[in-house]
TrEMBL record:
The lineage of its organism: Eukaryota, Metazoa, Chordata, Craniata, Vertebrata. Its EC number is 2.3.3.10. It catalyses: acetoacetyl-CoA + acetyl-CoA + H2O = (3S)-3-hydroxy-3-methylglutaryl-CoA + CoA + H(+). This is Hydroxymethylglutaryl-CoA synthase. The active site is at E95, C129, H248. NCBIfam families: HMG-CoA-S_euk (TIGR01833). It comes from Danionella cerebrum. Pathway: Metabolic intermediate biosynthesis; (R)-mevalonate biosynthesis; (R)-mevalonate from acetyl-CoA: step 2/3. One of its GO terms (biological process) is acetyl-CoA metabolic process. Residues 13-170 form the Hydroxymethylglutaryl-coenzyme A synthase N-terminal domain. CDD domains: init_cond_enzymes.
């Protein structure tokens, strides 16, 4: 079992393997969610309050998974002064594929050509939402293995988050303390290879999320409890042991409910919870509920959200900056939340575990995250819907030149220039000098001649009543 190896064996591993550097990329355009509510003809507050989302970033046909990953990896390397010669493994975690054989990792190898470094292990890890975490774990495991030769390891998630993994990291993983849950379910899947849209069973998807959360938390607590026992300490792990709680964020309100659910787990596992004072105050009526019967129990949800409200403000709310301002990034979502925490706290506030120059560098590299989000361009819901329609109609085409404006992209952003007759994708990078106009004649504005419903209307919601499952189609992480 992980975490149970003797200390003599642990002494041979690299120390404090974890995240040395991190970079986040979000698209340069967004649509205001309040305006989108009106455009979609839904009730006021459905997106802004029901989902807890203020803005949603999206890409035109100028960006795809290849360009997003090129942008975020090159920014990671440039902003941290890293050399491509020093990279020994590159992992890409994603849920999006544009080729059933050629990996996105091979597209990123363009960045290594000038250095001459082709000795770079790793490949894509594809799985809805979990792909980024699996890729990160692969990189960590590689550093801790005999395969590591001292090289650096960046891992890119869906072109939105890139991380450099190595030893002596300011943000270290606790070896052996992972809780994993995997099961077979058709809650979210993409069976149509020519469509960007998945098929989603909304109610089942929420149940899968919450049941996986329950199981992972239980496995983690069992492992850390076993470690404490070996160290001669008899104590019970709870939310009080964590400085921050960061979640995969399909939408902000689900994150708040998830923290409340972990408090429910702590409450049900406690042999004699104090229901007079403290976090469990007033919860005695729920002492005998069964965890598997509470996925859509509104009374349980309301009570534990109220009980955990202060904990949410102190441990989790800061992590939702990108989720609130950019929406669900899918595979890299949880790491966008991690970056949000780092961007809004000083090393001293994050300390207690480790404080030093390396942590200073990691935090300072993300301190402009809010400024980056504020510098984006707001577009109308009609323009957003037209962009989504264009992607639907053209994403699978060969011999195609994208119509989106290059001028809308941020300086230094990689973009798709064309797809040739053999479906080979060609990319270029916008000059870092933002005053330089690239590729005249390709500037195309999108205007909506008809009312096209936005893809957000297709996204699954938490059911308000225990109705039967509803299968809906939603657009993927590209918007």
């Amino acid at each position: 079992m992980p975490g149970s190896l003797p200390a003599a064996c642990e002494a041979t591993w690299p120390k404090d393997v974890g995240i040395i550097a991190m970079e986040v990329y979000v698209p340069s355009q967004y649509v205001d969610q309040a305006e989108l509510e009106e455009f979609d003809g839904v009730g006021a507050g459905k997106y802004t309050i029901g989902l807890g989302q203020a803005r949603m970033g999206f890409c035109s046909d100028r960006e795809d998974i290849g360009s997003l990953c090129l942008t975020v990896v090159q920014r990671l390397m440039e902003r941290n002064g890293l050399s491509y010669e020093s990279v020994g493994r590159l992992e890409v975690g994603t849920e999006t594929i544009i080729d059933k054989s050629k990996s996105t990792k091979t597209v990123l190898m363009q960045l290594f050509e000038e250095s001459g470094n082709t000795d770079v292990e790793g490949v894509d890890t594809t799985n809805a939402c979990y792909g980024g975490t699996a890729a990160l774990f692969n990189a960590v495991n590689w550093v801790e293995s005999s395969s590591w030769d001292g090289s650096a390891r960046p891992t890119g998630g869906a072109g939105a988050v890139a991380m450099l993994v190595g030893p002596n990291a300011p943000l270290a993983f606790e070896r052996g303390l992972r809780g994993t849950h995997m099961q077979h379910a058709y809650d979210f899947y993409k069976p149509d290879m020519v469509s960007e849209y998945p098929v989603v069973d909304g109610k089942l998807s929420i149940q899968c999320y919450l049941s996986a959360l329950d199981r992972c938390y239980s496995v983690y607590k069992n492992k850390i409890h076993a470690r404490w026992q070996r160290e001669g300490t008899e104590r019970r792990c709870s939310l009080e042991d964590f400085g921050f709680m960061v979640f995969h964020s399909p939408y902000c309100k689900l994150v708040q409910k998830s923290l409340a659910r972990l408090l429910l787990n702590d409450f049900l596992c406690h042999p004699s919870p104090n229901t007079e004072t403290g976090p469990f105050s007033g919860l005695e009526a729920f002492r005998d509920v069964k965890i598997e019967d509470t996925y859509f129990d509104r009374d349980v949800e309301k009570a534990f959200m109220k009980a955990s409200s202060e904990m949410f403000d102190s441990k989790t709310k800061a992590s939702l900056l990108i989720s609130n301002q950019n929406g669900n990034m899918y595979t890299p979502s949880v790491y966008g939340c991690l970056a949000s925490v780092l961007a809004q706290h000083t090393p001293q506030q994050l300390g207690g575990q480790r404080i030093g120059s390396a942590l200073d560098n990691l935090v300072s590299s993300l301190c402009d995250l809010q400024d980056r989000l504020d510098s984006r361009t707001k577009v109308s819901p009609a323009v957003f819907a037209e962009n989504m329609k264009l992607r639907e109609e053209t994403h699978h085409l060969a011999n195609y030149i994208p119509q989106g404006s290059v001028d809308e992209l941020l300086p230094g952003t990689w973009y798709l220039t064309r797809v040739d007759e053999k479906h080979r994708r060609h990319y270029a990078r916008r000059c870092l000098n933002e005053h330089r106009h690239l590729e005249p004649g390709l500037h195309t504005s999108c205007t909506a001649a008809e009312h096209i419903p936005s893809p957000l209307k297709k996204m699954p919601r938490i059911p308000t009543t225990p109705a039967g499952p509803e299968v809906v189609a939603i657009s993927n992480g590209d918007h």
